[in-house]
Amino acid sequence: MASHRRLKQPSHGYTSVLTATAAVTVALSAQSASADPLPDPNKKGVQAQIDRLYEEATQATEKYNGAKESAGTLQKEADQLHETVVRKQAALNELRQQLGSVATAQYRSGGLDPSLQLLLSADPDAYLDQASGLDRLSARQSDTLKRFLSQQRALQQQRTQAAEKLDSLQDTRKELGEKKAEIQGKLAQAQRLLNTLTAEERAERAATEERANRNSERVELGNEASASGRTAAAFAAAKSRVGMPYVWGAAGPGSFDCSGLTSWAFQQADVSLPRTSQAQANAGTRINSIGALKPGDLVIMRTDLSHVGFYAGNGQILHSPKPGAQVRYESMARSGMPFMWGVRI
Length: 345
Description:
By secondary structure, the protein is an alpha+beta fold. The chain has helices spanning 12-33, 43-108, 114-119, 139-196, 199-215, 229-239, 258-268, 277-280, and strands at 285-287, 298-301, 307-313, 316-319, 328-331, 339-344.
């Protein structure tokens, strides 16, 4: 008959040790799980956020460039209007002196003509309502008076225009400041996200950019000879800038944003292009097919037309792509930006 022995129960002290050990293990696991303060535990997600911020910064940069170009144009127009006002004021003063001499002569000869009294009053323009008064003046005096009143009205109109230009300039400068702050904010946010990556992850990201820059030197471009004339000269100027850094708002010669590179390159070929990618998108003949592009044609990217570069042949674009990158050749298919159309200048 088999004997059955009752198993010895663990002592109370041993049970307490097991319970305490389990509690410590659970506590350490919970502490480890809550110790990671990263905004996104998925590092690829963090890098995608960084790339998105860089893209948004480049889009804002084109708006900044547009506001800066508008500010320059408005400043030039305001200055020209001011010079015109100064010249016309001098001419008006001369006419006023001539009419003053007539008034003085009439006064000395026995009285001041009522018409001249009206002219020299606080509201000389009301003289036109007194047309019969012209009969009291000589033909020469009448002509001088008419010119005075006409120039006075023109001067007032141009003063109004100058004031409007200055108001517009002030609004544009405000927009310029807002876009600058937006760009700097996005770049700062991207840098904060970069700082959450480990040193190894940052090094890997930098190495990826470096490989893209190095591969640019070995790209097969195909038939570059199809570029001609000033387009060929502009394309050659752009190629000489390969390796220069992307800097927002920069237009060469040592750093560029995307439209800064294209406008600078064509400037070297004595061709003036608008400063922004959106304006450059309509600066020449539109080419809707990638297959119809020739080296030196502009390539407009993104649905909001916020990126531009040179078509380099063989499906490659020569451009200044984004913060942290250099002017380089890159496959259009791998750029991550949709092709909209080409522009032949």
